[in-house]
Amino acid sequence: MLSAKSLFQEILDNDESFRLFCSIAASGESQGGWENARIAALVPQSERALAPKITRHGADEDKHGRIFNALLKKRGLEPVPVPPETDYTMLLERGGIGLAHDKLKADRPLTVQDIVTYLAHSRVTEQRASEQMELLRKHFADHPDLGRAVRMISHDEDNHLAYCHEELLRFARAGHGRAIQRTLCESALAEIRVYRDVSLAVMAHMGRILGWSRPKAALLAAGIHAVYGWERLAGWRRMVSLKTPERRDALGGPAGGPAGSAPEFA
Predict the structure, then answer these.
(1) SS3 call for 119
(2) Residue 264: pLDDT band by 50, 70, 90 thresholds?
(3) Are 98 and 121 in contact (CB under 8 A)?
(4) Helices and strands: H and E segment counts in the chain
(5) How confident is the model at residue 261 (pLDDT cuts 50, 70, 90)?
(6) Angle, CA of 145, 76 and 150, to the nearest 5°
(7) pLDDT value of position 262
(8) Do 17 and 11 contact (CB within 8 A), yes or no?
């Protein structure tokens, strides 16, 4: 029976597919770490109190990248170049979602509206990350090799999502409600398209590595299109709502783990 668990187990059991999976994940997390670090450095003076939380967010993303690389190292594998069509963060940036890298590479302070845009984009992408890690935690929380990594990253992604809700609600109370809702809707509709395209590309690469039959590959592609259809019809709305999170001040403490190290998964 084809299920999320059996599909991922198949990817996990093959060195080449696992190598590609971890390489894609590590690259995306590292990119997120760089983006958050640059945003923290460029926060406008009126929002400097937010900088430590943005720094914490970036440090968590960097940590996740190191975790995926550590999982590769444990299997004696090296990362592989990420195919451009599977690069989720790059494709979002190219689509004009979030803050442009040209802006982040400059030394000019960001505006308050830039920070609102960053938080709205993050609220959408962290929803996706939280759901994906929840799925992995459901099936692999007790896995001898992946379990600890899955639990740790899932906890962090839930924290990131809570932080986005809390800060966006603060900005909404300060008069940015319309801009927040507009940016959330634009980001969500763009994200679901990018997620569909990246999912199709990743599954195509995995299918070639694992030798999937045409019927199996077609069934998986149909499933991805079906998810997109549901998200385009109604599912995107879960990405634009805001509510007070149960986890308050989720990024108020220090980042876990030394900046230059990765947790051990031996």
Answers:
(1) helix
(2) low
(3) yes
(4) 9, 0
(5) very low
(6) 25
(7) 47
(8) yes
Between CA 55 and CA 43 the distance in angstroms is 11
b or e along 40-58 (b: 16 or more beta carbons within 10 Å of the residue's beta carbon)? bebbeeebeebebbbbbbb
Q: At which residue do the structure tokens 């929803």 appear?
A: 127
């190191």: which residue's tokens? 66
Dig out the tokens for 63 from the structure: 């940590």
Work out the pLDDT band at 162, boundaries 50, 70, 90.
Answer: very high
Average pLDDT over residues 140-167: 95
For the beta carbon of residue 200, count every other beta carbon within 10 angstroms: 17
- At 123, the pLDDT band (50, 70, 90 cuts) reads very high
Cα separations in angstroms, 30 against 90, 95, 201? 12, 19, 20
Q: Answer positive or negative: Cα dihedral of 228, 232, 234, 236.
A: positive
Q: At what angle do helices 51-74 and 147-171 cross, to 10 degrees?
A: 160
Q: How far is CA 6 from CA 3, 12, 14, 86, 150, in A?
A: 5, 10, 13, 21, 17
The C-alpha atoms of residue 65 and residue 84 are separated, in whole angstroms, by 18
Q: In the prediction, which pLDDT does 1 show?
A: 61
- Residue 219: alpha-carbon gap to chain centroid: 25
| 259, 171 Cβ separation under 8 angstroms | no
Alpha carbons 252 and 62: distance in angstroms, whole number? 17
Residue 113, token pair as written in the block: 């509206």
